[in-house]
Amino acid sequence: MKITIIGGSKGTGARLAALAASAGHEVTALSRSGTAPEGVHAIAGDATDPAVVRDAVSGSDAVVVTVGGAKGNSRHRTSVTRAVISGMEQAGASRLAVQSSLGAGDSGALMPAPLRLLMKGVLAVPLADHNEQEDAVMRSSTKWTIVRPTGLTNRPATGSWRALQVGEKGHLGGSIPRDDLAAYMLQALGDDALIGAAVGISS
């Protein structure tokens, strides 16, 4: 599979890029820095520019957005995601996976009440960005999957996780290693049952 990762120079994106490349996929990473793990084709560019994204995702089987926030732009994730959707439409790419956050959209229902209240207070600004990001994804014509992790850590992968959609029984909380999140996202790209799904995930 040919995969393009938007924001693949660090964090979850870099973990996903390395994992996908080691699994034999052809991986491209677009970031401002133009850096990427070994075995990954790196492109330096502005992911808020649809033309830059179009060229980066041309011929891709799947596109993944893993960008974080940016100083001075409270809607950076939204801006990038909108540009990615536009670039994908121009390039004829359709499969999209986006890293959001537990607490965004309707996913508060998957969290214990105390944690839900804490998230709303402490993470109000990034969650507002994620809400607009998710809205753009859900309104797009892409074959999308939204992944909503709990708190992220750099601990070693455990190889296991709990993934729930709103309406399923149970609660999520705590944290998840970035390597486990990356493994789940790579798995999700090949699972057509997750097209049109927003999934919360934690250890």
Explain what this protein looks like in three dimensions.
The protein is an alpha/beta fold. The protein has a single domain, classed as NAD(P)-binding Rossmann-like Domain (Rossmann fold, 3-Layer(aba) Sandwich). It contains 6 helices and 10 strands. The protein has an 8-stranded mixed β-sheet, with helices on both faces. β4 (62-65), α3 and β5 (95-99) form a beta-alpha-beta unit. α1 packs across α6, α2 crosses α3 (76-91) and α3 packs parallel to α5 (124-139). The radius of gyration is 16 Å and the shape is globular.
What does the secondary structure layout of this molecule look like, with pairings?
Blueprint: E1 2-6, H1 11-22, E2 26-31, E3 41-44, H2 50-57, E4 62-65, H3 76-91, E5 95-99, H4 113-122, H5 124-139, E6 143-149, E7 151-153, E8 162-165, E9 175-177, H6 178-189, E10 197-202
Parallel strand pairs: 1-2, 1-4, 2-3, 4-5, 5-6, 6-10, 7-9
Antiparallel strand pairs: 8-10
Helix pairs in contact: 1-6, 2-3, 3-5
> Radius of gyration in whole Å, from Cα?
16 Å
Give the mean pLDDT: 93
Question: Taking strands numbered 1, 2, ... along the chain, how are they ordered across the largest sheet?
Answer: 3-2-1-4-5-6-10-8
Number of strands: 10
Euclidean distance between termini CA atoms: 27 Å
Low-pLDDT windows of residues: none
Share of residues in strands: 15-25%
